[in-house]
Amino acid sequence: MGGRNFVVAALLVLPAFSQKPLPRRDELAAIEKSLDERMTRFNVSQPLELLGLTRGIYLPGYGAVFTAEVGLIQAPILTPFRPRVTKEEALQIRAAKLKRVPEMKSLMREMLLASATALDSLPPAENIVLGVTFLNNTWEDAAGLPKSITMRARRSALLEVAQNRQPKSALDTLVETREE
User: Higher confidence at residue 101 or residue 11?
Assistant: First the structure.
């Protein structure tokens, strides 16, 4: 009787050891750092304003989710010596942000691709999600600007593009984008 219990126990435990390990915290931390670096290096002459660090978590059975908060451009800081932004400056800032939105979407797609290749232990059928929330100052006209953009794609679909089995233009259909 004892031998049969051992065989049953071994059969129950064996699948757990044969499965590929799921993403560990250190792997997610490496992706977080990479995403932060890509956003800060995005445009040296007109940089994004990274507000805090990117955070990632792994949701078993769903995938890896990364979030960040950024300013589309570095807006002037109000101080007692500069108590307000002129109307002309506000219009220039708005125009720069409107121009930056499609650039940010393109950067986010590139970051999803890079994450798909770097997250070796993420199962191909699971998702990679990147959500970015944007900061707008109270004095800004934010009409027409997104408050956030979230992009989601299956890792397997991203790998098809990363390994040149699909053209980069396929990202437009493979990546689900939600703008609020």
Answer: 101
- Report how far residue 32's alpha carbon sits from residue 138's, in angstroms, rounded to the nearest whole number: 29
| Residue partners of 133: CB distance under 8 A and separation at least 6 | 67, 68, 69, 70, 147, 148
User: What would the pLDDT profile of 56-91 be if each residue is shown by its tens digit?
Assistant: 999 999 999 999 999 999 887 778 887 888 999 999
pTM above 0.70, yes or no: yes
1-10 as b/e: b if 16+ CB within 10 A: eeeeeeeeee
Cβ neighbours of residue 158 under 8 Å, at least 6 residues apart?
Answer: 112, 113, 115, 116, 117, 128, 174, 175
Of the candidates 61, 57, 56, the one whose C-alpha atom is nearest the C-alpha of residue 125 is 61
What is the C-alpha separation between 39 and 34, in angstroms, rounded? 9
Cα(40)–Cα(74) distance, rounded to whole angstroms?
11
